[in-house]
Amino acid sequence: MATAADISAMRRAIELAARALGSTSPNPVVGCVITDASGATVGEGYHQRAGGPHAEIHALRAAGERARGGTAYVSLEPCNHTGRTGPCAQALVEAGIARVVYAVADPNPQATGGAGTLRSAGVGVEQGLLGDEAEEGNVAWLTSARLGRPHVVWKYAATLDGRSAAADGTSRWITSPESRADVHRLRAEADAVVVGSGTLRADDPHLAVRGVEGATQPLRVVLDTNASVRPTARVLDDAAPTLIVTGEHADTRHLPGADIARLSADEAGIGVRALLDELYGRGVRSVLLEGGPTLAGSFIAAGAVDRVIGYLAPVFLGAGRQVLAEAGISTISEALRLDMTETVRIGPDLRITATVPKGA
User: Fold this and answer.
1) Which residue among 5, 21, 310, 333 is least crowded, i.e. fewest CB within 10 A of its CB?
2) Contact 63, 71 (CB under 8 A)
């Protein structure tokens, strides 16, 4: 049975992992705490970037010889394969760790098996401590590993009567400066931010992260079947990388030097799954969907939204653009019912977070 000290050390490992959100893809975020034989913390670490040392290696380096006979608390099962770095399970064995406690099993078939390697070497292994908390902190990578596509968060801002823009199309600003600053935090935690051509034409968004110290800029993605994006669009500056996703036969001569992905399209445009496959192949494991109601509706209809974050302002418009367009729902029995996980006051606004139930 887990002790209070075990729980405290694992919670610290999960906190450490969260420091690298948005910076490790296509790898997971992982944290590690090492205690010596007496239970004192002697090493901490987290995976900081893809290709760099894993969390266990950082923690072992900090612990040195004090790790021998101690316990390693890891938010994800230690890896068992050699890629750009060596297997962490073997490193723990060689360091003389006597016990390993990890929160979540690694679903990646290339990396799993670390627990077995540890047990074979005589190391005591325990799984599942604070598993739900660790899952939540690593949900983007775990979703991508299990489903083979990026984890998708749809973010929107709306009035209390469900409008994302006024009748004349104006939308700046529905929500408060506090809410807009919070959106930059969401961007900093995502690998890619996606908008459609309609939002690009209407709002000319910049989509880069501002005001978050040390943030890794996400890939800015514009879904634009006919390559209608203007060369002067703010999203094409050098503040962050940008990908323009067009149809196969779009004329892109007015976009020299732009990173362009050409995907097949039909009358409805480029398919959501094709877009997600393209992004997954580029190492994107988490997507923040910031597009308008049409793009959001297509993702909902495709069953490709995992979490919804809505910023609700204490404002009424009475008319104007709704937050969600056609989503493949025609009757109340088909309504997509979400699981509410959090409500937080952000300045004068309310931020509501909900998840889409598995299989919905």
Assistant:
1) 333
2) no
Q: What is the pLDDT of residue 359?
A: 66
Q: Is the dihedral of CA 240, 273, 17, 156 positive or negative?
A: positive
Tell me the DSSP string of 112-127.
--HHHHHHHTT-EEEE
Query: Around Cβ 190, how many Cβ atoms within 10 Å?
Result: 29
As a residue count, the chain comes to 360
Question: How open is the CA angle 58-190-249, to the nearest 5 degrees?
Answer: 130
pTM score of the predicted model: 0.89
DSSP assignment, residue 163?
B
3-state secondary structure of 58: helix
**Which are the catalytic amino acids?**
56
Q: Is the dihedral of CA 331, 336, 339, 344 positive or negative?
A: negative
pLDDT digits (tens, 9 = 90+) for 308-340: 999 999 999 888 888 888 878 888 888 889 999
List, as one string, the DSSP characters of 87-112: -HHHHHHHTT--EEEEEE----TTT-
What's the pLDDT at 291?
A: 78
Instruction: Name the band, by pLDDT with cuts 50, 70 and 90, for residue 202.
Output: confident
